[in-house]
Protein 1
Amino acid sequence: MTNSLIDPKDYLRYEIVAGASQDAPVYESHKRGKNWMAVIRLDPTAPNGLGRVFVPKAKGDDNYYIVEGAVQAGDAIEFGADYYTGGGSKHATRWYGVVVSMTGKEIVLAETATAKKAIKLANQMKEQEQAIPLVEELRRQLADLEAEADKIKARIEELTAEVEGDSNEGDSNEGDSNSDD
């Protein structure tokens, strides 16, 4: 899905192998690191006002998250990468964005500045996607109406030609009847 709301030069593209993403925009590799990916939505009853559906973590060195079946184009997402110091202090890194498209081989993401902007963009993408079939239907209807208008114009030309032909025949008949007098 191409999206006119986001500049394609800003897309992040990650390979998918066996349903798992092969990279992430932020990731803490330290043993005291905590990482996650979640589909987000506004939820005033949830921590920080964000409802989260966590995406399962993948196993193995090159796998990050099991994205197949967990996310789809138009989802607002959050990546978290927290590092905890030996003294227990947390250094949090967050990445917010949307899933622009996803195939069995690639997930394409676009970053936003905040979670709310990601959710807003995701909603706009979904509205745009819903509008596409409506626009296509309107284009089909317009083409049908234009074809009908062409038929009507052609019929008008035929009738005009008939009327002019009848007039000319009447003129020639009048000339003939005048000559008989």
Protein 2
Amino acid sequence: MTTQQTDAEKRIAELETAVMGEDKVLTDIGENYAFLIDQLRAAQAKNEELEQLFALHYKREVEAIKRWRAEDPTGRALRAPAYGALLDWLYVELEMATAKSNERREMLEEVEWIKAGGYEHCLICLNSKDEGHDTRCYIAKAIGEDS
């Protein structure tokens, strides 16, 4: 027997072993096919969810950078903020918007109080020349009562 025949026989034996191993793997896959398909579908669903989350994050980040640049168009036109600085800037923007919203809510509450008769209450206090009328009117306004 030549060396080439021995090497060829070894290689054939290796391939036969590999094929047998693949058959076992394929058998294992066949037995667990439903489980593996469920796992694959779950992974695909999670991947889709994450892709949507990343797309939303990117969209919101682009919107925030546009707002940041609009505040100072000449100075920030070709710059991108550091992510932390952008978040700080957005937080300040949120605080200012919240303050403005609270101010508007208080104005609406005052209008509702006036519509409910609060204005007449103040006129009564003012006409009575009671020196403490301001305090009582503001207390009545704060609690929404006519006292």
Protein 3
Amino acid sequence: MKLKKLQRRIPRIAFKGLLLSFLLHGPLCHELFSQSFPISADWGPNTWARGGASVASALDHDAFTTNPAGLIRFYGQSSIAGSWGRWILNENKWSASMVDGTRAVVGGLQFNWADKDDIRRFSYNTGVAYNTNYGAAGVSMNIYDFSGLIEHNGWGVSQTAGILIPIGYGFMIGAAGKAFVDRMNDNLVPPMLSTGISYRGFGAVQFNFQADRRFSVPDQDWNFSFGGDVITKKFYSVHGGYRYDRSREESFWSTGLSLEAPKIKIAGVYTRGVGPQDGDDGFGFNLDLVF
């Protein structure tokens, strides 16, 4: 009799154990993914100012992590830059970088420090770009050091590669791929594809469009960024942008102002979320010295 009662109880015990395991580990897995950095963790103030639309335009030192082919804009000169930002989604970031464009192959180094909630990511980036008759190509190696995660803390190596191709009449197309051939955990650095087009005309106006998507992680879709610049003849430019996010992050609008002289560029940007966290805002600054 006791044996029969035990046999009837075994399925119930197994079900309760399975339910308990799900309750304990399900939130844990979700928290692990929710702690990963958003796409915008690779952006500096100049990319934020254009709503994240950067892959088809050469936006200074942000090129190390958005599209390394953009480093070609420093051909014939060298540059040192630094930036700081407190952004939406509880992101804080600062960076320092240098680029040498005095040779046929433009190359440089960059260090990024990013905080989000209780996790921290250091990234050490080295990149090169080369110009051809058909456009520019570039690649960067991205070395990461994560801390504060539930698991997968420590070091990892990834890469970013991209192209910029002028197609005439002021138009340029760009594309970049990130982390497609590395061995890092995809929750930390998901594979990502970015494509876009830019137009510069009328001597002082530039428009940028970008579509990007992460892969191998849940709830991802194509996101769209729109950016614009009005460049004046009095050493300053006005920027603006909007990002429509469809991947569990945040849509936002942005605006910025750049002061430019022959050897120095100072930029500031303000952003404001328009999604579930409407009212969440952020701002940042960038200093670029050219010599």
